[in-house]
Write a structure and sequence with these properties.
six-stranded antiparallel β-barrel; alpha+beta; 3 domains; Pdz3 Domain; elongated; single chain; Thrombin, subunit H
Length: about 475
């Protein structure tokens, strides 16, 4: 009886394994079929873009990228060596309307003297530039004609990490190449690629020439614009690509088609991430929120009553945890629009309504240089500002104290403090003299944390340090 039971159980397990294998094969076949369908549906609307430029300045700019960009973020469509003053570059794009509007990257068409579009069926068109946005790296061009095949926008907010996506474009001039991968991460920012970042990260193979092409979901809808790739020092692909989320891009595209440019809303605050140390210093339960480091005088934020040190936790009923989410939402809002902002101030929740304006032609929120110097256990020396120090560090204000030394490997260096930066406040105490700094520092030592309001070439910001 026991032997019979074992035999029956073995047969059942073998059948289960066979079914599992068959299901796995079916799933793989279905996935492959989905990729094939995407290629058939999307390829007719993906185009090859060639750009000619006679501008030596643009050629030089394209060939001599900043070292950090050159080493880590290779843009697609870099120009070929100029011939007789002519530079030729290429990239990808995709048609979004039957009357020939095409979305691509700004860095593909920037400085172009002529733009040529080659469609999937081999037809060549001379395109005209409708508008471009340098800060988000989005551009729109148009070709003459009608009944063009077009791609539909998907919803990049709904796509999840781990989902399949497909990149379609013209890497190395190889027309309509398709690669598949997954969404590796969302909301990537602070990469230094463009001013407004909220990238989708994917391991779908993206190479030079893919720039401006679509990132597609399994319904062949656009969820992103392929923009950059992380490479090795030797230029090899590391399997890390970045795409602009289409929900962000389509707002820009709409403005470019309507106005030929992007007009961003202006609030007048400088913001920063709320680190664990800063959160502790503000008695916050966690580091979710956006810290206001500076409020420009007479700005919409100032007029609404927002203050330096406020922690933004909600925007228009939506919780705010990341700086790029808040910054991008405000920037893409129309001037004149009003926004309800909830902040934590002195431990209490307060609500303000801010009406945005246009960005001033010249935003002169001059940082006030500050800081004194004396070696502390955190690894800095501070000094009161005098004429000599003001000249040495190019300071325009005598407020605060200036950092004249930062010990290598110290807590201060790890926190991002640098020589020539000025400390305006220690926690909530102003530091216009060395004695004020040390008084504030001693009080902070008892509290267990140090919150410095600092000014440097980047403007005002908070630095949080947890003390042992």
């Amino acid at each position: 009886m026991r032997k019979l039971f074992i035999i029956i159980l073995s047969v059942i397990l073998i059948n289960i394994k066979a079914v599992a294998v068959e299901v796995g094969v079916v799933n793989l076949r279905e996935t492959a079929k989905a990729f094939s369908n995407i290629a058939k549906l999307a390829s007719p609307a993906v185009v090859f873009i060639q750009v000619e430029s006679y501008s030596s300045a643009n050629i030089r700019q394209a060939q001599e990228l900043p070292p950090i960009i050159e080493e880590f973020f290779k843009r697609y469509g870099e120009p070929l060596p100029p011939h007789n003053g002519l530079a030729i570059s290429h990239g990808s794009g995709f048609i979004i309307s039957e009357d020939g509007y095409i979305v691509t990257n700004n860095h593909i068409i920037q400085g172009a003297s002529s733009i040529t579009v080659l469609t999937h069926e081999g037809k060549e068109y001379r395109a005209r530039l409708i508008g471009s946005d340098v800060e988000a790296d989005v551009a729109v061009v148009q070709i003459e004609g009608s009944n063009f095949p077009k791609l539909q926008f998907g919803d990049s907010d709904k796509i999840e990490v781990g989902e399949w996506v497909v990149a379609l474009g013209n890497p190395a001039g190889l027309s309509h190449s398709l690669s598949a991968g997954i969404v590796s991460a969302k909301g990537r920012s602070q990469l230094g690629i463009v001013d407004y970042e909220n990238f989708i990260q994917t391991d779908a193979a993206i190479n030079r020439g893919n720039s401006g092409g679509p990132l597609l979901d399994l319904d062949a809808k656009v969820v992103g614009i392929n923009t950059a790739v992380l490479v090795t020092k030797e230029g090899g692909n590391m399997g890390i690509g970045f795409s602009i989320p289409i929900n962000m891009a389509k707002q820009i595209v709409d403005q470019l088609i309507k106005n030929g440019k992007v007009v961003r809303g202006f609030m007048g605050v400088r913001i920063q991430s709320l680190t664990s140390a800063l959160a502790k210093s503000f008695n916050m339960p966690d580091n979710k929120g956006v810290l206001i480091a500076f409020v420009e005088p007479n700005s919409p934020a100032a007029q609404a009553g927002l203050m330096q040190g406020d922690i933004i936790v909600e925007l228009n009923g939506v919780k705010i945890e990341k700086t790029h989410n808040f910054r991008n939402t405000i920037a893409l809002s129309a001037p004149g629009s009003s926004h309800k902002i909830k902040v934590i101030r002195d431990g209490k929740l307060q609500t303000f309504t801010v009406k945005l304006t246009t960005i001033p032609a010249k935003n002169l929120a001059e940082p006030e240089p500050l800081m004194p110097s004396r070696m502390e256990k955190i690894g800095i020396i501070i000094n009161e500002i005098n004429d000599a120090l003001a000249l040495d560090y190019n300071l325009t204000s005598t407020a605060g104290v200036v950092i004249t030394k930062v010990a290598p490997g110290s807590v201060a260096e790890l926190a991002g403090l640098t020589v020539g930066s000025c400390i305006i406040k220690v926690n909530d105490m102003s530091t216009n003299t060395s004695s004020q700094f040390h008084q504030g520092f001693n009080q902070a030592t008892k509290a267990g944390y140090l919150r410095l309001l600092v000014t440097d070439e980047m403007g005002q910001r908070y630095v949080g340090i947890t003390l042992d």
